[in-house]
Structures are given as C-alpha cells and as structure tokens.
Specification:
Order of helices and strands: HHHHHHHHHH
Number of strands: 0
Number of domains: 1
Distance between the termini: 38 Å
Number of helices: 10
Largest sheet: none
Strand content: under 5%
Radius of gyration: 16 Å
Shape: globular
Structural class: mainly alpha
Helix content: over 70%
Length: 211
C-alpha cells in the first residue's frame, strides 16, 4: 500500500530526532491525544482528524477576545500537537498534514476568522514543524496546502487567494531551513496557484463574480 510505504519512510526520518521544544498548550494536547487515538485505529482516519481539529479550533477561537489575534497561537499549538502525536505513534505526519490543515481553516471559518491569513499560518507552521523532526518538508507542505485549499472550497472562500497565501507561507518557512528546502518546496508546489485559479473559475456562477 502507498500509505504504508510513506509511513515507513516517515518512521526512518522521525526516529532519533527528538529535540527540545516549547511545551504544548491545552489545545495542542487535545489535538495530540485525538490524533494518537485516530492513528492507532484501523480504517479511514482523515475525516476524524478534520472533525477533531475543526471543532477544537472553532471552540477555542470562539472563546477568544479576538479571532484574528488568537489564530496564530492556536494554529501553532494545534500543529505542535499534531506533530507530537505522530512522533509518539511513530508515523503519520505526511498523511495527517492535509487533514490537520483542513480542520484548522474550517474551524477558523466557522467563527468568522480570516481564512487567508490562517491558511498561511497553518502551512508555515506545518513546514517548520516537519523540519524540526526531520520529516520531508516538501511533502508536508504539499499535503498542508492541499488541505487548506480543499477546506476553502468547502466553506466557499477565495480559493486563489488562499492558495497564494499558503504557498507563500510554505516558502517563507522553508527559507528559514535552507536553500535546498526552498527549492524542494517550490518544486512540489509548482502550479498549485494556477490550478487553484481553475478551480475558483469553475466554482463561479455563470453570470460572473468573485468567490
């Protein structure tokens, strides 16, 4: 199975890469525990992770004084929780990156958050987190970008703008890792914005307008 091959690759890169990191907050711990449970289960896990992350993000943002001000810290903590979960299980970051990213964007949308900004923050955090544990940053970037675009389609957001922001967030994060990472991320994300424009155009009403 392709998923098992990816999982084996991740296990080889993640093991032995433990480093000192900032502690995970309460929201991150909730996501971590939920993802661990899902990854240990059998069958379809992506929908469960999307639901878990979406509900967690929307609940915590709804209680915040300002969604815009809270979104960055919430996004970072959720991604940290997801990464900690995959480390504990020994696999799953590449497979779960799309679902986590999708859930964050949908959760932010549920409470009227800035989906474009959240998309950029999410992909940026995912790439940085992947680098921190030695995972394939390019593949994680692609999965996360796919997740935020899919979420934006489902909530009726501006797919093109979200795609641009997500790609920019990935490249910015890769820039802090090194030139090789930047090239890998750019290569794997090549054409994403163009495809997003096509998706956005197809979604427009025939009379015209914008998303």
């Amino acid at each position: 199975m392709a998923h098992r091959a990816v999982a084996r690759k991740e296990m080889n890169t993640i093991r032995g890469s433990q480093k000192n990191r900032e502690p995970i907050g309460g929201v991150g711990s909730t996501v971590k525990d939920g993802i661990i449970t899902s990854l240990k289960g059998i069958g379809e896990i992506e929908e469960e992770i999307v639901t878990l992350v979406r509900n967690t993000a929307s609940d915590i943002l709804r209680t915040g004084s300002e969604v815009a001000g809270e979104s960055l810290s919430v996004t970072k903590d959720i991604v940290k929780g997801a990464i900690a979960a995959t480390e504990e299980v020994g696999t799953g970051l590449i497979l779960s990156a799309k679902s986590v990213a999708k859930g964050i964007v949908m959760g932010a949308s549920d409470v009227g958050g800035d989906v474009v900004t959240v998309a950029s923050q999410t992909v940026n955090s995912a790439v940085k987190g992947a680098a921190g544990i030695g995972a394939d940053v390019a593949l994680v970037a692609r999965r996360a970008v796919d997740g935020v675009i899919e979420a934006t389609q489902e909530v009726g957001g501006n797919v093109t703008e979200v795609a641009k922001a997500a790609v920019s967030g990935a490249i910015e994060a890769a820039g802090g890792i090194g030139n090789t990472a930047v090239k890998a991320v750019k290569d794997i994300l090549m054409g994403v914005v163009g495809r997003a424009k096509e998706v956005g155009s197809a979604a427009l009403p025939k009379s015209g307008g914008t998303l």
